Amino acid sequence: MPNDPLPPRAGEIRFPLDPGALPGDARLVFIGRLRTPWTSRADCPRNGRLSEAICTVEVDAPYRSALPGVDRASHLILLYWMHEARRDLAVQAPRHNVHPVPRGTFCVRSPVRPNPIALSAVELLGCDFAAGTLRVRGLDCLNGTPLLDIKPYFPSVDSRPDATVAE
Amino acid sequence: MPNDPLPPRAGEIRFPLDPGALPGDARLVFIGRLRTPWTSRADCPRNGRLSEAICTVEVDAPYRSALPGVDRASHLILLYWMHEARRDLAVQAPRHNVHPVPRGTFCVRSPVRPNPIALSAVELLGCDFAAGTLRVRGLDCLNGTPLLDIKPYFPSVDSRPDATVAE
Fold this sequence. Notes:
The structure is a homodimer of 167-residue chains.
Chain A: E1 13-14, E2 26-28, E3 32-35, E4 54-59, E5 75-81, E6 89-92, E7 103-104, E8 117-128, E9 133-137, E10 145-152, H1 155-158
Antiparallel strand pairs in A: 1-6, 3-4, 3-10, 4-9, 5-8, 5-10, 6-7, 8-9
């Protein structure tokens, strides 16, 4: 249900415009999709670290020539498009929020945001470059979610173990 | 120079299509921009951890209501659009590559990719919610780079200190 027209939940606030209804400033191409065990949003784990599920990244044929060597990295960052997410909420009450108070969209990791791009740092378990598939652990999204990008995870820049988040 | 028409460097290979010339599958809105000290690509640091520069995130007025509370996180993930990057290379020789051999686009963090979305995990130093500005350390991009998203950095899911990358 893209750009879900349902009224906001209690305490939620919309942006003064709906980003999903704007003509947009740049265009994305879908380069593949993610195969996961989850076929409804209610089934998806709160985050990928809470699941041991092995998922498959399917890269479409025109983009497979960019894959060889990706297995030099033990972990990858996947960017994907949360195609079922509405985009119009400024303050929201995510289903998985451990805190009951609605929060600013930029304070949560919910798929609902002006540009519904999600990222996961996943463990790379195996590759078939000819078939354009990667086996990974650490995803949390719906089966069939469109893939936007694959990047190597560099612990020297991406890992911030001292980061903190107050409740 | 978007989608730079220059011929590839030695060893570089193009995709069979130019993703930047396709009609696209989804549309992005720019929600602000990044103010950095760097005005040419040659000046940008190789990555944000190599710079102590304090940069400013400018969030446009319609999106500022989603900011309050963002300072509960000590670090943020910023997603931004590398607006000067070509999108058509499958194998590339990035300027900053420490290895002299051209590599698959999904094996490097260069801005050149089918969807030129970059991410940085930055340290949050200060906020002015009314003005829509955040002061951060850890960026590496051109001044004026369009902003796509702001997310809290959650070390429990985003930090993978044991990740490795072979040279």
